[in-house]
Amino acid sequence: MTASATPVTGSLHGLRVIELGTSVAAPMAGQILGDLGAEVIKVERVGRGDDSRSWAPPHWGGESVTFLALNRNKKSVALDYKDPRGKQVLEDLIRDADVLVHNLRPGALAAAGFGEDELRRLNPRLINVELTGFGPDGPRAGQPGYDPLLQAYSGMVSITGQDDAPPSRVPVSLLDMGTGMWAVLAVYEGLRRRDATGLGCHVELSLLQTALTWLSMPLLSVLAGNPPPGRLGSGLAGVVPYGAYPTDDGYVFISAGNDAAWDRLCHALDAAPLREREGFATNTERVRARAAVDAELGLVTSAFDTTEVLRRLGAAGVPCAPVQTLDQVVTDEQVAAVGAISPLPHDRVAGFSVVNLPVTFDGARLAHRSAPPDLGADSVAVLAGLGRGPAEIDELVRCGVVQAAPTPVSERVETL
Fold first, then answer.
1. What are the residue numbers of the active site?
2. Which of 358, 15, 375 lies closest to 187 in space, CA to CA?
């Protein structure tokens, strides 16, 4: 089967997840769980909702691209759970849930009456997944954590960028999204434990620990007594040539991981003098002469356009790839062939598409059930499912405890 096979339903079908998530980390976890089949109820603030709803530009059809990227396969309930009536609704949701995922400001959920003890009392089978910036202990435990701050604090920024320029962050939410991934793995572990014991558990993750996990190789190098690595741009400490080299019309990334590949590279690019130059013969020598090798090889590659460099190196078996811009990536034949991007119907965004989870099962991708929701789009239906009648729901909406879609409450309840 191929990646275009009929989508399949994930194994978490029937699992209920409550997401008290904002920004990136918890929404990422909730989206993956939703992709895997779980019913994900996203509880948002009345009026504003998830912070990422207002993170724009960039927009797509008037919607925040960040929100669109992280919130498919979810239901939205807009609820003021600091109000006693809203708190009762959240308690009912948690009693009926399998998983709670949250990344609010440290201590905020406990201050609202939903600390760990209260959650265990409400639902002993609940898998309570808490995501923070710095972790539960230590002098920074109560501080909010944002991806670029944790990239800096963890040392990641110190090794990113060119050595003659200021340090740089990785320009994606690497730690937020990585922590969301770890949260999903933790949910599966929690479910297995619950199968064995009948009890839930409290799972704690942090952006700091995710960063340290991604940095395990350079951290172990330092623990072994080596100096901290410098900033090498696109280079790699132990291999030269390795990185992005200029062409006549762009850049090509080249990785010559051994001396045989270096010989083939020099032959393919008509650069025999490089192979014969003193101090360039072995990888160990080239690492010591990194700046000179990179400069000389850049002069060679600059004499060709990108297509020609790729043709020559590809024929010689030297690992290489074009440095593509994102507008090239979204139309790339290989990206299309693996089915990485697919359309998803959206009421407000014409031509909406999503980046799928990077897995298939027997050639089939997981099915998408719904586009990212309007704020409060499912408030009425979810409350009705908790046993609230039309009059009570109308009153909660009127008082501002609940925000609902503009369709009259009575009509929405009657169509459930």
1. 176
2. 15
Evaluate whether 133 touches 145 at the Cβ level (below 8 Å).
yes
Q: Where are the alpha helices (DSSP H) in 198-305?
A: 207-214, 216-223, 259-268, 272-276, 283-288, 290-301
pTM listed for this prediction: 0.92
Q: Are residues 108 and 207 in the same domain?
A: yes
User: What is the rounded CA–CA span in Å between residue 217 and residue 23?
Assistant: 29
- Between the CA of residue 173 and those of 3, 49, 151, 177, 182, what are the distances in Å? 27, 20, 9, 6, 14
Condensed to tens digits (0 to 9), the pLDDT of residues 82-118 reads: 999 999 999 999 999 999 999 999 999 999 999 999 9
| Cβ atoms of residues 122 and 46 within 8 Å | no
Range(s) of the domain holding residue 262: 242-246+251-322
Q: How far is it, in rounded angstroms, from Cα 71 to Cα 41?
A: 11
Render pLDDT for 23-67 as a digit per residue (tens, 0 to 9). 999 999 999 999 999 999 999 999 999 999 999 999 999 999 999
Which of 147, 148, 145 has the alpha carbon at shortest distance from 132? 145
d(CA 37, CA 309): 45
Both 313 and 352 in one domain: the answer is no
Token pair belonging to 148: 């670029």
CATH at residue 311? 3.30.1540.10
Is residue 267 domain-shared with residue 129, that is, in the same domain?
A: no
